[in-house]
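Posting this for the archive.
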Amino acid sequence: MASVLILMGSTSDWPTMQAAAHMLKEFGVSWEARVVSAHRTPDLLASTMQEAEANDTRVIIAGAGGAAHLPGMLAAFTCLPVFGVPVASKQLKGLDSLLSIVQMPKGVAVGTLAIGEAGAANAGLLAAQVIGTTEPAVQEKVKAFRVQQRNTVIAASKLELD
């Protein structure tokens, strides 16, 4: 199993969650993506967390829309860090998912990111930062990414009228 496991409740979440995979790939962090539903496959959810812990997975990124129970249920089955990404829904644009993920009870921690692709990308970045605490090569890539972001902003910082 990979260093980071990206889980989502449905294949319809993959277009959003790919942003996490792209970010991890940029930093050279191994990842694996799977569909595991908190509601439709709770047995698979439990066994996936057992497998992740047994195979040295370091971080879980969980994307969920609607009721968004997946990140919290995953966190209930592991002591690995779980980062939740609210996936935008048609009905409430992801606000329902955000509130479901962020409002965890005391004692079951889920780090919650922004709704949608930005949140997924930042979950990948945050996972790389966690892995970078023990893997200097990953940390150096994160530092280079930050320098690149800074240089991009500076290069486009002077604004003028057309």
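Residues 136-155 form the longest helix (20 residues). The beta strands are 4-8, 31-35, 59-64, 82-86, 111-112.
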